[in-house]
Write a structure and sequence with these properties.
- This is Acyl-CoA dehydrogenase family protein.
- Keywords: Oxidoreductase.
- It comes from Saccharibacillus sacchari.
- Its EC number is 1.-.-.-.
- The protein is of the alpha+beta class and 435 residues long.
- Helices cover 47% and strands 12% of the residues.
- Strands 1, 2, 3, 4, 5, 6, 7 and 8 form an eight-stranded mixed sheet that branches.
- Helix 3 crosses helix 7 (294-316).
- The longest helix is centred in the last third of the chain and has 30 residues, at 330-359.
Length: 435
């Protein structure tokens, strides 16, 4: 089969193994995507398959039991998973990105980080940071969290509400930001509801194993999914954490980004990641937050799926007013050309900056503005690609039986993921004016 000219970012055999592995997962996720989108339900089965395939440990360092993939390699995976299900790719990306971030920055104190990495490698544990609140808006705006940390013997008690808590139905480990009581300081606290001893342990694969694409039977995946759902619910109840199912949105409906309510949740001193004065550096190595490129990778994956659907439709649909498929029509070919131009532009920018992040660690901090414009352009171009794909397919693209209408809704969520558009443009303007 001839390699797609548009998909020329796989550079070697190792990356070819990664994308083959991710494509197989994406195919399974695509079969469930419409159901979870329609219900607004969380795809526990997808995450059990990710764990079984070894996804959770992809970005762990090899010495921590992981595969030690680079940013570039990981983005190849994220984009392909999004072609199957954007919600799953975006949700899983927060875990994968944070493990890459903490691997490179040394912000998470030891031995806590190594202990968590061991759980990731052995049982597929996953994590996210819950920082958003209704009163503060996006955490990138710098608002002080209303969630409060109160000093008690041996640690802290946290109370408050976090919004947009992606992965919340699944997770038993998360990082929570909170304001320190009677102090201007803010802390990051690691909440671990369970322990390694009570966490189910299953054998996991790797994209680099000879049988790295092996997955358990669907019945076994369903059983594991039910176990994970029940375990998370029981541990939340025991710790004083309530999950309120508030996530009912236009797009990205299966990310499980509900509200989490903390009621005096205890965090021991050894699970405090850090306490800072607002504006103060958190220490460690500044990696420029390159890990957040998983966001544009996700939306470009959705756009790519729309492109493939529209191409297949154009090559095979012949209305009775024509003697050949609509792919022969000049205006259809014009839209197809624009789609491929926009995708190539956005994907070239994404993989170029990821490659530089991997090769030039000393320059990562000064790449931050570039990460912003890559995301800005990728999300806008991805939306344009999906719009054109729907024009090619016509009115049928609005049908719930066709994935394009889901792609249309999902891809627009990218406009509301960080970094925020106005901040990116202000940064670019500031850089230009300071020349």
């Amino acid at each position: 089969m001839r390699k797609k000219a548009i998909d020329a970012f796989v550079r070697n055999e190792r990356e070819a193994k990664l994308v083959h592995w991710a494509d197989l997962l994406a195919e399974r996720f695509a079969q469930r995507a419409a159901k979870h989108d329609r219900e607004g339900s969380f795809p526990f089965e997808n995450f059990e398959e990710l764990k079984a395939a070894g996804y959770a440990k992809l970005t762990l360092a090899q010495e921590q039991g992981g595969d030690g993939v680079s940013l570039y390699e990981w983005l190849l995976v994220q984009e392909r998973i999004a072609r199957g299900d954007g919600s799953t790719a975006l949700s899983a990306g927060w875990h994968g990105g944070m493990m890459l971030h903490y691997r490179e920055t040394d912000i998470w104190p030891e031995p806590g980080f190594s202990n968590f990495c061991r759980d990731v490698a052995c049982s597929g544990a996953m994590i996210n940071k819950f920082a958003s609140e209704r009163a503060t808006g996006s955490p990138t705006r710098g608002g002080r969290p209303q969630t409060t940390a109160v000093r008690v013997e041996g640690g802290w008690k946290l109370s408050g509400r976090k919004t947009y808590s992606t992965l919340s139905p699944l997770l038993t480990d998360y990082i929570v930001s909170a304001g320190i009581e009677h102090s201007p300081e803010v802390g990051d606290f690691i909440i671990r509801l369970g322990s390694e001893a009570d966490e189910p342990t299953y054998a996991s694969g790797s994209p680099f194993d000879a049988d790295g694409t092996f997955l358990p039977e669907l019945e076994e995946i369903a059983s594991r999914a039910q176990t994970s759902r029940q375990r998370a619910a029981e541990l939340r109840a025991a710790a004083g954490v309530t999950l309120e199912e508030t996530w009912d949105t236009l797009g990205m409906r299966a990310t499980g980004s509900h509200d989490i309510v903390l009621d005096g949740v205890f965090v021991p001193d050894e699970q405090v990641m850090g306490i800072y004065t607002p504006g103060q550096s958190k220490g460690g190595v500044d990696d420029g937050d390159g890990w957040m490129l998983h966001i544009p990778a996700c939306y470009l994956g959705i756009a790519y799926a729309a492109r493939d659907y529209a191409l297949n439709f154009a090559k095979n649909y012949t209305p009775n007013s024509l003697k050949e498929p609509i792919a022969t029509l000049p205006h259809i070919r014009q839209w197809i050309g624009q789609i491929d131009s926009e995708l190539r532009l956005a994907r070239t920018a994404l993989y170029d900056i990821a490659d530089r992040w991997d090769r030039l660690p000393d320059e990562r901090a000064i790449m931050r503005p570039e990460f912003g414009w890559v995301k800005y352009n990728a999300t806008h171009l991805a939306a344009q690609v999906v719009d054109k794909a729907m024009k090619i397919v016509g009115g049928a693209s609005l049908s719930k039986s066709v994935p394009l209408e889901r792609y249309y809704r999902d891809v627009r969520a990218g406009l509301h993921n960080p970094p925020m558009e106005d901040a990116v443009l202000q940064s670019l303007a500031r850089t230009a004016l300071d020349e």
